[in-house]
Amino acid sequence: MRRADRLFQIVQLIRGRRLTTADYLAQRLEVSMRTVYRDIAALAQQGVPIEGEAGVGYRMRAGFDLPPLMFSKQEAQALVATVRMAESRLDAALARQAENALSKILAVLPLDARAAAESLALYAPLPALDPQTGAHLATLRESTEARRKLKMGYLDLGGVKSERLVRPLACLFWGPVWTLAAWCELRNDFRSFRVDRIETLEAMESFRDEPGKTLADMNRRREGQEQGGA
Fold first, then answer.
1. DSSP class of 18
2. Which residues contact 109 (CB under 8 A, 6 or more apart)?
């Protein structure tokens, strides 16, 4: 790894953690701790606001930002591949934003990296989401972020219809289908709903996270069930 690339990686690693030790940096970058200390000193001399000291750890002063990022050819190709695979699986609004973000990134890349990315012969020509599922996914995504309850008409795989009031927790993609992880007010428990089985959907009042009803609680229960069944 070139030293310039290593310095960039050090900045990224420190920015992504509350406190980063020299030992952690040395292991991630596969260099000696002496090299890490020299690189930290070099970054500080260049004006990068890294706080901390050897033997304790480092952190980045709040408010620091980097100039536009540079990607290698392989990294640029990975971004293109990711967007192509995701677009047909996202709601229309989020797919457009993914394409816009990719366009902005490609626009600032060196010509060789941009050409390599745009010519990537990797595609994901799966059928796009049907309009209703796409619209519902957008509502679910926005309501999850805004912490708004949802009233929905649901048709389960057995053909049974029900009206539910739920607290949306997360949208999960399982290959062919999206599901909604939620706290169901009707069942007073966690439930998962297939998005393509939702018939009607309406955003309702806001809610606050409560102990025992969060995504973290749902994940802990699932982990406990998996361990118990092992």
1. S
2. 70, 71, 76, 117
Whether residue 17 contacts residue 50, with contact meaning beta carbons closer than 8 Å, is answered with no
DSSP strands (E only) in 57-125: 57-60
Please enumerate in sequence order all residues whose Cβ is within 8 A of that of 179, keeping only pairs 6 or more positions apart, or say none: 171, 172, 192, 193, 194, 195
Verdict on whether the full-model pTM lies above 0.70: no
**Is 19 within 8 Å of 57 (Cβ atoms)?**
yes
CA dihedral 217, 223, 227, 229 (to 10 degrees): 90
| Angle (CA) 168 172 175, round 5° | 150
Q: What is the pLDDT of residues 11-70, one digit of tens each?
A: 888 887 888 999 999 999 999 999 999 999 998 888 888 888 777 889 888 766 655 556
218: which 2 tokens? 């749902």
Nearest to 40 by CA among 61, 67, 18, 10: 10
Residue whose tokens read 């971004």: 79
Q: Do 143 and 168 form a contact (C-beta atoms < 8 A)? A: yes
From residue 9, give the alpha-carbon distance in Å to each of 30, 39, 60, 69, 149: 12, 11, 13, 11, 41
Backbone torsions φ then ψ of 142, nearest 5 degrees: -65, -40
Kind and range of the H or E run holding 5: helix 3-15
Give 23-52 as a DSSP string: HHHHHHHTS-HHHHHHHHHHHHHTT--EEE
Backbone angles phi, psi at 127, to 5 degrees: -60, 140
